[in-house]
Write a structure and sequence with these properties.
The protein is mostly helical. It has 1 helix and no strands. The longest helix has 7 residues. The relative contact order is 0.16.
Length: about 35
């Protein structure tokens, strides 16, 4: 059992890049597509 918040797994960076179609910065940065 993980001792930190979250799901206990780390996303694979390459999978995130491959399947991400749009991205938004929720903290005031510019949105990217």
């Amino acid at each position: 059992m993980p001792r930190t918040p979250g799901t206990g797994t780390e996303p694979l960076p390459e999978a995130l890049r491959r399947f991400t179609t749009a991205r938004r910065d929720l903290y005031g940065g510019r949105a990217e597509r």
